[in-house]
Structure formats: C-alpha cells, structure tokens
Amino acid sequence: MGASGPRRGPGPPDGGWGWAVLGACFVITGFAYGFPKAVSVFFRALMRDFGAGYSDTAWVSSIMLAMLYGTGPVSSILVTRFGCRPVMLVGGLLASAGMILASFATRLLELYLTAGVLTGLGLALNFQPSLIMLGLYFERRRPLANGLAAAGSPVFLSALSPLGQQLLEHFGWRGGFLLLGGLLLNCCACGAVMRPPPGPGPRPRRDSAGDAPGEAEAHLAGPRVREAPSGGRTRRRLLDVTVCADRAFAVYAVTKFLMALGLFVPAILLVNYAKDAGVPDSEAAFLLSIVGFVDIVARPACGALAGLARLRPHVAYLFSLALMANGLTDLSSARARSYSALVAFCIAFGLSYGMVGALQFEVLMAAVGAPRFPSALGLVLLLEAVAVLIGPPSAGRLVDALKNYEIIFYLAGSEVALAGIFMAVATNCCLRRPRDGPPSPGTEGGAGDGEEAEAEVDSDLPPAGTEEPGGLEAVEVPSPGTGPSQPEVKMEPGLDS
Predict the structure, then answer these.
(1) Which neighbouring-strand residues pair with 233?
(2) pLDDT for 265-318, tens place per residue?
(3) Which of 135, 273, 321, 455 is the most buried if burial means most Cβ atoms within 10 Å?
(4) What is Dmax (Cα atoms) for the chain?
C-alpha cells in the first residue's frame, strides 16, 4: 500500500488517457453527489405548489440518493456484463430524461418517480462505472486521483446551488428542472471518454477469428477470467458476494452505514435552516457554496496526503479521524443561528466532509483489493441506500414535528462520530496485522490487501464449466481455444492493487 518509486512492468498507466478519464470522473462525481443536495433549493417552491410539508418534499433528494446507492449491485452486474462505456451512456440518458419529465409533474408521486427514481438510477449507472475505470488507470497515484475526482462534488455543489436559485427565480421550478435535465446530458459525453486501458500483459494466442467479441471490456469488473481448454466453457461472477465474509469489508460496511445515517443531513437541511433563521434566500443558498469552496481544497489535499508512503498504510485511521471531526462539527454547531456562526460551521463542515469524500473509496480499495472492488462497492452502496432512506426523511419529520433544528444536528453528529470511533477501534482490534515488510519486486510498496485479495480470488475460481459458489449469477463464455491440449491461461484485468 505504499507509494514509492515508479512502477515497473505491466500495470495501470498512471497517466496518459487516464487524465481524460479522471476529468470525466470529476464531472460524474460532481453530478452524483452535488445534484441531490442542489435540488433542495427548489423545496420551498415545491411545498407551496403541492401543499406539502418539508418531509414530503425531502423525499425527492432521499429517493435520488437511495437510487444512487441502492442500485450499486445492479450497476456492478451491468458493468461486468456490458462494460463501463455503454452503461454510462444509458445512465446519462436516464438521468436527463428524469429531470425533463419531472418538469411536467402534477403530483409529488410523479416527482418521486421521475426526479427521484429515474434520475437517481441514471446517476448511479454513471457513478460506479467511473470509479471502476479510474482504478484501471491509476495505481501509484491512486490516492491523488481519488482526491481529484472527489473534488467534483464540491465544485458542482458550489455551482449548482446558486445556479438552481437563479433558475428558480427566472424560470420557476419547472423551467429549472427542464434546464437541469439538459445539463445532465453531459454525463453521456463523460461516458464516451471511458475507453478500456491497454491490457496488463501479453495476451494468449488466438485462432484466426481473433479476440472474442466484447473481451476488450470484459475485464472492467469482477474476478479474473480463465481461458479453459478447447470445448470447455468459462464462468465469470457478475457479483462476488463472498466479499461479505471478509472482516475488513464488514468493518467498512458497518462504518459506512452509521456514517450515511447522519453525514448528508446537515447539507440537505442547511439552506432551509438558514432561511428559517432569517437569512435572506440568496445568502442562505450561498452557504452551500461555502461548503463547496472549502471542500474543493480539502479533497485533493487530503488525497495527496493519503498518498504519502508513511500515511498510506494507515489510511483507515485517517478516515476515522475525518469522520470524528465531521461529527464533532455538527455537535458543536447545533445552536448556530447567526449568519457568521453558520459560515464558521460551513467552513469546518466542508473541511471534514472533504476529507471523508477523498478517503472513503481509497479505504475500500485497500480493504478488499482491486479485483473485488466492483462487487464490494455495489454492496456497500446498497447498505448506504438503506441508511439514506432512514436519515434525511426522519430528520425532515422531526423538523416538522418539533420546529427545531437543534436536535437534528445532535443526532447527525452523534451518528457520524460513532462511525469514526467504530472504524478506529475495529481496525485496531480486529484488522491490525504487520504490513511494514520490504516491498516486493514490481510493486509499489510491498504486498498489500489488494494482492492478498487477488490470491483469494484465484483460489476461489473453480474448474471451467462448473458453478461458482457465492456468485449472484454466472455468465458462460465459450472458450476460443483450438485444441484439447491448449493450456489454461489466466487473464488478469489491469486493476491496481
């Protein structure tokens, strides 16, 4: 897990076309995380037009986030089956169509199905494949790449929130939704950038028919694929649920569930909290921009910090520290009512929130290894969806019932701080093991979790033509071999460890 010296031998290019992929991932991450929060600018207009309470309108953002997270396993399966690029192109069309159809909604239920379900599904089909593709292009610079890609969230949040306010004032919420739907078509352009990287090494000899159709992108997710002897058939897991038995994954999943209960609540409620405190609408919307501006600096800086050779093996503790800082920020700012106090809260919240955003996927990659990362990411996002459906809607109902935001900040801060404490204690007590041995040849900083995970995946693969245990579904791929004496060849994706 160290980050020292240039990589030798085949592997992720750590540059080249990867910078274009990183730029596309930056945009996708910005839409995925910034869009559900920016939509909250329209909530008051929706409450007025539909005669609904805040908790009812908050379901739009909650459903959008739930779809972003809850369809993680579906996205993993589709990426494994079809590759990243076609899945992202379809996702961009769905996200745009959802917001365009929402502009014609006459009931809240129609908003839930269009802006919530359809747009959320489209964002999900863009978000997860972009992270998988980023891992294919970067290894030595992976923490920095993750930090730069994660910076898309605050950049877009700081831009989309004022933009939404301006669209609301000039075109109403219907015109604003229509124009935002057109803006989401940029996801299709980002998907077109996601071409597979060069293979990790020499390919096996093929017959005159050439490569099997679709093989170029078949390695984008999931465990390794075996070439069976002629006449045999190979099977590839679409979703590797055996990762759930990994203790490191279990610790991370519990941490993320606790974190998701409270992490997004302050950002979703912030604008309306400020408006109820007497802050003018334009200044209240600008509070989210302050969070975004601080977040922009925090994410790349934290990603670069986590890539240092001395800190990278301890990235889980850095992640737990960020969670505790975010929770304490919520707790200490529960009674903030003046605009200056809210600005101070936004600065502290943006800093800790940026650290969490920059580290969360790097910690997961280090915990389960790159070969199992697509499946692990899908399952973790599913757990987060449950938490997102509990957290913000419950907070909205408490606001409607108590007319007081203080208890909301106390609850959200306690949940996020508890997640950080659990992560630190569980990592120290259950997962601690020696990692400081000398680097192995051809690796960045010695054997890490990724390499251990690869060995486990290899040992799990059954003989060709047999059913794999633990997989959600299997796909049969005819072997292109030419004779029964052809040896079995392993093909490894260019994933980083």
Answers:
(1) 478
(2) 887 778 778 887 788 877 887 887 788 788 888 888 888 888 888 888 888 899
(3) 135
(4) 79
Determine the straight-line distance between the first and last CA of the chain, rounded to whole angstroms: 8
Question: Which pLDDT belongs to residue 62?
Answer: 78
Give me the amino acid identity at 407.
I
Residue 61 token pair: 């953002």
Q: Give this prediction's pTM.
A: 0.65
User: pLDDT tens across 191-231, in order?
Assistant: 998 888 776 544 444 443 444 433 434 344 333 333 344 44
Output the CA–CA distances (angstroms, integers) from residue 195 to 83, 198, 272, in the order listed: 9, 9, 42
Q: Which residues, at least 6 apart from 261, have a Cβ–Cβ distance to it below 8 Å?
A: 387, 390, 391, 412, 415, 416
Query: Measuring CA to CA, how many Å separate 73 from each of 56, 76, 85, 243?
Result: 28, 5, 17, 13
Cα distance between residue 439 and residue 434, in whole Å? 13
- The SS3 call for residue 12 is coil
- DSSP label at residue 115: I
- In angstroms, rounded to a whole number, what is the distance separating the alpha carbons of residues 326 and 337? 19
pLDDT at 125: 92
Q: Are 137 and 12 in contact (CB under 8 A)?
A: yes
Query: With contact defined as beta carbons under 8 Å apart, do 135 and 495 qualify?
Result: yes
